[in-house]
Task: structure prediction
Amino acid sequence: MTTVFDKDLEDQLKDRPPGSALVIDPQPDHALAAYAAAAGLECHVFMPRDTPRAFQVEVRACGAHLELVDGLISDCGRRVAERREAGKYRGVRPTLLIEPGVSGSDWTDRQRSDRSALPTRSRDDVAELPEYLLGAVTADGRIEAKLATDTSGQGHQTIVSQLLADELGVRPDDVEVGYRGSAEAPTEYGTAASRMAVMLSGAAVRLGEALRENLETLAAREWDVEVEDVAYRDGGVDRLDASDRLSLAELADLDASGDGRPTRVEAVYEHPATAIEAFDEAFRQKLPVYPTAAFAVDAPIVEVDARTGEVELLTFYTLRDCGTVLNPMIVDGQTAGGIAQGIGAALMEEFAYSEAGQPLSTTLFDYRLPSIENVPEIEIEHTETPSPFTETGAKGTGEGGMIDAPAAIASSINAALASTGVVADQLPFTPNRVRRRLREREGDGRGAESGTPDGDDGRDRP
Amino acid sequence: MKPAPFEYHRPTTIAEALDLLAGHPDAAVMAGNQSLGIVMGNRLATPDHVVDINRVDDLAFVDVGEDEVAVGATARHRDLERSSALRATVPMLPEAAAQIAGPSVRSRGTVGGSICEADPAGNYPTAAVALDADLRLVSAGGERTVAARDFFLGFMMTDLGEAELVERVTVDRGPFPAGRTGMAFLELKPAAQTWPTISAAAAVRVDDPTAPAPVVEEARLALANAADVPLHVPDAESAVVGEPLSEAGLDAVAAAAAEASDPSDELHADAEFKREVAAEYARRSIETAYDRATGAE
Result:
């Protein structure tokens, strides 16, 4: 959908093509953008540069691409024609993502088990691996936590120090987070299935609760009062009558003369699916069990150069919901990194083989990874719909971006090239492939402005 | 991968380097080492001697003179990219340099290395052919000057003798007076770290940029990766000379570029595609150069 709207309704009525939707709205540009977004159509609005800013913002907010033109409304019409004349096809088509998260070890086990025994299986036999987190108060009154699961750089330590700081009312830099040795650590599922934010944040909350409770008990014993007469607050335990306070260092010191158990805790966060009845059926079959479902909508605006086959991403809009955002910087980092990988998959990266099966993408010259030059501005927005099933409301989101961006980009390319009949039917949709598809369309007489995709051409060599 | 054993030499003067090359006919010259180390590591090259010219200070210069521009063999891509004097006189060279790989490669790679590697997809070979640059080749026995248009013989093959070193690249400023000359170096390159699929190097001089329709006095065009050597396209040049740039002229440029191109299939680009984009980039580079010459851009 590419059009130019005059503000004058009468003009619209007069010029309306037969069968077209009539937009009756004091601001037709805004309405057009909104209807286009609802219908999943690309929408470009060309406005004179001096159009009031409020109108410009509304159009952009509806996901339409806005181009400001120097001059009057007639100059806008000329601009649209020029873009097409130059072979530049812009398009956007919103796509939706549901990202299942936090799959578990029981599902893996079930794939290897006897199917006939599953229906009569007891729920007690469900064996999901929990997340373990070890915590201790050190002699100098700091918190030391140790993870049992490895990391790939997603910020696990940051999440634990941040959440323990919240739970215990201390500063994040007072929480030292390290790793248990592989010999002493209990069996773990590992960093997989987008599970770590959910599992680790749950374990951190459990650890905070356990430490607070233990420290209150320890302090009550020291003062020889009931536990109800003391309260953990901000890095220490207070007597409720305000007559005394024990700091974390003092509590560690008290515990040092005892058995050391109150200030050293192993928290265990059970896999959320184990407590959800709705999964009973899945656990008795070979069905996946995903306690969380993050979701997103993407709207990458692409411009296809029909003459060279190059696809430029102008802006990548994405609205995402991973439940409670524990740490915005980490979530945005996961999103941006995932989208960058998705861009590579959509437009560049390919393991190619010769007809004899020889791998052809054997170096990074041939296996093309995206660099920052290939990644456009990514406009990330979040809504937060907390998971009812996880301790912190977080949902797994570690694989978002790379799941959805390839399909999102392909869909926007399809929108851009809709009038040519070309569809992005094979990823990566490289310039070579774009041009080949366009040539095929031109060659069989169904060039621009005609025909529908028929998917005749299938796989081809790169 | 490790290279086969070799003897390493690090001369500090041109004379010393040339004596080493004369004494070791199979020696490989190492400049920015952005390619040699890779082929040696893969044992595709196993020279017994490597002559590292990075400490020969007399080869590292960018010299913009009254009549000509001279660039030494070990001037880095970065040196060209950042040279305001070059930007003012032969802007094609900084534009070509700036599009090579990423900053780390540009800080090491050299003009001489790129010229001698003679990859038809390389930026400087194509720019040198478009600019009709001269190469000064030196050896213990003397020196000679070869036009870039005669230097590249075949795929990664040049006229360079075994004991010769490319000492400098020179560009005559005469055809490119500032104020009415425009240049462009445009690449179709899907990923920064790879070679471009096609590049086009163009220069256009007009009679009077302030005229309503400036007339093209001279045009230059060369294409990278469109054939087994950097490809000079004289038919495209003559198609636009003597009149203001027109759509018909640009169509003729594209047709001449397609006609001259003789590309080979590669992994991500078949020959038909490369021919198409060679034509389109030829058109765009001439148009951009004209717009720059006339101040429209």
Summary: Residues 74-101+291-443 of chain A form a domain with the Aldehyde Oxidoreductase; domain 4 fold (CATH 3.30.365.10). The two ends of chain A are 32 Å apart (CA to CA). Residues 1-26, 446-462 of chain A have pLDDT under 50 and may be disordered.
